[in-house]
Hints:
Elements: E1 3-6, H1 12-20, E2 24-27, H2 33-40, E3 45-48, H3 56-61, E4 67-70, H4 80-85, E5 89-92, H5 98-113, H6 116-124, E6 142-146, H7 150-161, E7 165-169, E8 183-185, H8 188-194, E9 197-200, H9 214-218, E10 225-228, H10 237-245, E11 251-254, E12 274-276, H11 285-305, H12 319-324, H13 326-342, E13 349-356, H14 361-372, H15 386-392, E14 396-402, E15 410-418, E16 421-430, E17 434-440, E18 443-447, E19 452-459, H16 464-474, E20 479-486, E21 492-499, H17 505-513, E22 517-524
Parallel strand pairs: 1-2, 1-3, 3-4, 4-5, 6-7, 6-9, 7-8, 9-10, 10-11, 11-12, 13-14
Antiparallel strand pairs: 13-15, 15-16, 16-17, 17-18, 19-21, 19-22, 20-21
Helix pairs in contact: 1-11, 5-7, 13-14
The chain binds nicotinamide-adenine-dinucleotide (NAD) and D-malate.
D-malate (MLT) is lined by residues 49-50, 72-74, 97, 281-282.
Amino acid sequence: MVKVLVSDPIADKGIEILEEAGFDIVYNPNPSDDELQALASDTNAWIVRSGTKITAELLKDARNLQVIGRAGVGVDNIDIKEATNQGVIVMNNPDGNTISAAEHTIAMMMALSRNIQLGHMGIVNGEWNRSNLVGNELKGKILGVLGLGRIGREVIKRAIGLEMKIMGYDPFVNQDVFDQETVTLVDLDTLTQESDYITLHMPLLDSTKNLFNAERIAAMKSSARIINVARGGIIDEADLAQALNNDIIAGAAIDVFESEPLDMNSPLIKAKNILLTPHLGASTHEASEGVSFGICRQIRDFILDEKLSNPINMPITDMAQLKQIKPFLELAETLGKIEMQLAESPVKSVSVECFGNIEDSKPIALSFLIGLFHDMTDNRINFVNAGVIAEERGISFSHSLNTEPVSFANLIVAHITTDEGTIEVAGSVFGDQHPRIVDIMGYEVDVRPKGNMLFVQNKDVPGVIGKVGMLLGEGGVNIAEYLLSRTPNNDSAYSVIKFDGEINEELLESLKKVDEILTVKQLHV
Ligand code: NAD
Ligand code: MLT
């Protein structure tokens, strides 16, 4: 039975979908480290929010894991690189909490602007402190929005309703997307210097880590306030606390932290004019239900129908297309298996060329890699990690679609190079689903690639078939097919011999000793 581990709290609505699908659900929203390791080791699917850290160590032990679902947007709690290496698909559910995060941003901005948290704390501590808590209107103020994706845009819509002027910055978005009168795109320095409020809506990346450090914070207006409902680590927390305490800026509202839960010794806790919330951006009933329902449906559809939605690390998104081209994929995988068995030394480069009615070379080429690597490791190899495995081994990899006419309805030509030279095998799918090898090293053949085979290159002189047949017969090997190919102006020939059973090393050595035989390889596909 398919096992699904849910190791963070998610709404019942999603769990019901998994139950209806008949999965074995392990719901443990607060496991200890040891429990998590034990639970992960035999699960097929794993659903988390931001609480569970899916580390490389946990992934290495999770031998049955096929898919990780993140109920929400940020995947910084998942070691994506290791998941990819292990062939585990990671998907998120990015839309379910957009509105909640945008509304929380507006709530933080308004509360900060009117000192609501300070007023509340004052009253509960017996103070009635009106004169020290004079705030600002938002109307007419400049809001600088960094990150113009889903949440940034929803924040903009709401800020327009508050009659704010909007500046935006996103290195991947250009002005055409917005009416310049309403949202003016500027560079990062201009946004930093001119905004009255700055709100962050980008992921934590190498390029955004500590983007707001002491230097950048000092470039803000002294009356400006900053809001972070995106990710901890984009603002340097120590630098922010210092800037607030020294009135370098007027306030900060922070929902996300470098390390969560926030340590009570963090300098942010006692910083001036700060408003802190414990990662509440997505904490609404609507968002909890939305992400739970969304991710559980995605996981169910993937497990039952191989349907992919919002994959983070899958080079191919159209799984329906993969089903349609299954015969080509199987052929390519077979070519990979054959070429790996023909190779005498490590593969240095791979190139796959597709002709005829094949419309996309990438999945075909990845399938070839899957075949090439199939005996290399006991880790699973699939579309997620085949390219990465090639890269890690320094194997250069290319693929192309070629429109030149060929004498087959479709043709896949795969080359690998090794220190010994190039190996080329080509195949075609006859009819709808009959795979054939049609070329081996330039020799035209017509081989149904299945079972045990001998690939023999020999001098094109009389008597070779007889000698080979005799040796195999003496060794008790029953020949099923003997396919010979000759090419004009060539003094060698290529044979593919299919047989029942297996040929032992001794017999293989006797074949290699036949004078006329140049190369002989036993293959299995
Ligand atoms: P998104 O992918 O739709 O948008 C992110 C945008 O950031 C993209 O447009 C991207 O081009 C931009 N970007 C990348 N690098 C940038 C840079 N250096 N400067 C400016 N922009 C840059 O993501 P989203 O759904 O809008 O989410 C935004 C962030 O909010 C994510 O980090 C997400 O994890 C976080 N989030 C937090 C909460 C919460 O509970 N606090 C809830 C939901 C999402
Ligand atoms: C997200 O990235 O989706 C949010 O931070 C909310 C969450 O962690 O659940």
